[in-house]
Amino acid sequence: MPTRRVSGNAVKLLFMEASRRAPDEAPRPGVTDGVTPSRFALTDLVIITGFSGAGKSTAMAVFEDEGYFCVDNLPSELIRSLAELFRHGGSKIERAAVVSDARARGYFEGLAAILDDLRAAGVNHRVLFLEADEQTLLTRYKETRRRHPLAASGSVAGGIARERALLAPLRERADVVIDTGALTASMLRRKLADEVLPARTTARLAINFQSFGFKNGPARDPDLLFDVRFLPNPHYEPDLRPLTGTDQRIVDFIDRDGALSAFYDRLHPLLDYLLPQYLAEGKAHLVIAVGCTGGRHRSVAVAEHLAARYGDSSDYLVEVSHRDVHKPERR
Fold first, then answer.
1. Which residue ranges form the domains of the chain, and what is each CATH number?
2. Which residues on adjacent β-strands are paired with residue 205?
3. Burial status of residue 217 (CB atoms within 10 A of its CB: 0-12, 13-18, 19 or more)
4. What pLDDT, on the 0 to 100 scale, is given for residue 86?
């Protein structure tokens, strides 16, 4: 199923939808509707908690990229209801990750009891606890200038101290504890992949090769951009002008003097080096833009070529898009 992230408040809509079931369809407490635990859709529920500023947002993004249904800032009381909803016979959610922390204020204190309930109900779940030393947390709050959820009108240090006391029982019950004090975001992503994500999960880099025309505006937020306006332009050939870069006649024209092949001789080694580096760093999505003047010929041909070259690799999920290929040409 597609990846999805929702907020704690949005989860209420899910419960409202589930409540439309007929009364006799609603499961009674302790009753599983005749469905054995092995047949429940939900096979992995990860509860992410820990110190504010310790990297829970980064952790959530890791699970989101792996296809987990993600819910941020979920009050602990709703975790039980969410698990029941996903264990219902009609649910298609197999893996979910939720963040529950001090932002929920009074609703967070009952998380320990909720964990007991999940265990008693046979819900497969894990608790991921993220922490960092006080100085690291203080530095991160200073850099972001955000307010600590337990220090609305006081010092950040005081908020951290109150949070430490609140989290102590949960840390003892965590399945995985990670100290993020010396970790960058990319290091944390790799550590989570190694220690928390299912072993069968293989990270893949989603690559979108996107063609565009400079005269129609710049590419939108590319990670890499290649300007191919130096290549021979088919636009000035009346017989070729109506065609696009998906036509072999356009490719042959661009490479008539070997310019396109010479470009590939240099571009391929560069991408062959860069793409595995992005994958190893933990990057999930990469946009590679290729631009020419109008976005109909040269950039389309190059984007199609690159998509074909890397599309068969098991390490990448490749898409190709042509922003301006169907825009009317200017004579």
1. 4-195 (3.40.50.300), 205-322 (no CATH)
2. 316
3. exposed
4. 84
